[in-house]
Amino acid sequence: MYILRTKKAKQYITCIILLATLIILIGCTAPQNNSNVSNAETREASKEVAVIEISPSNSFELLKEGNARFIDDKAGIKDISLERRQTLTEGQHPFAIVVSCSDSRIPPEIVFDQALGDLFVVRLAGNLVDSVALGSIEYAAAVLESPLIVVMGHEKCGAVIATAKGEEVPGSIDSIVRIIQPSVEKVKAMGVAGDELYEKATDENILNSIEEIEKSPIVKELIGTGNLKILGAKYILETGEVKFFSEVD
């Protein structure tokens, strides 16, 4: 009987020790959880500050810096983690709107070395701006408060070349040609021909798209308040450089 009681006593003591250990472990992990919450709140606060501080000028600098990294083969590692994607489910704050040609060689996110949620991209062949594209631009500028619009064309644009050559095109491709045609005719009237015609017409087409965007009352109002800027740009295929037509003060 004595031996039996001793074994039960030992079991009882062991249970007490295990319970005490569990309480200590719970107590030790509690501050760590609070720290995680605090870190998460800090990260969220930092994101909010970044959104508030963004402006046309520093958006322009971010694009230039990103393109410089791309040119030098020093593109950064992009955060495409689950955590980043989950953060973006709460909303988006793209710092720039890029209107570009659909050409597979000039994806804006890569050309400007940016990550998920950084750019609001509108792409149509010939970097054209129709009513749907304009509505998309207005949404990004007015609702998402992106402070910079860049209309980016590129060298040897097939849409411009086809228009300049006057070639017959099938299907709805003709709708692209009709929009680009005025830019081509304007440059032809200057006596320009050949490859120079293609490139100058491309530049003129970029400017024409900018004019279309500026006709928007929403865009016009935002430009008037100084909260929005529009720039033209051209991508150089061989070097990867994006040449901006102007700067942001």
From TrEMBL:
The keyword Transport does not apply. One of its GO terms (molecular function) is zinc ion binding. Binds 1 zinc ion per subunit. Keywords: Lyase, Metal-binding, Zinc. Its EC number is 4.2.1.1. InterPro entries: Carbonic_anhydrase (IPR001765), Carbonic_anhydrase_CS (IPR015892), Carbonic_anhydrase_sf (IPR036874). Pfam families: Pro_CA. It catalyses: hydrogencarbonate + H(+) = CO2 + H2O. GO terms for biological process: carbon utilization. PROSITE patterns: PROK_CO2_ANHYDRASE_1, PROKAR_LIPOPROTEIN. Its cofactor is Zn(2+). It is an enzyme of class 4 (lyase). Zn(2+) binds at C101, D103, H154, C157. Belongs to the beta-class carbonic anhydrase family. This is carbonic anhydrase. It comes from Clostridium aceticum.
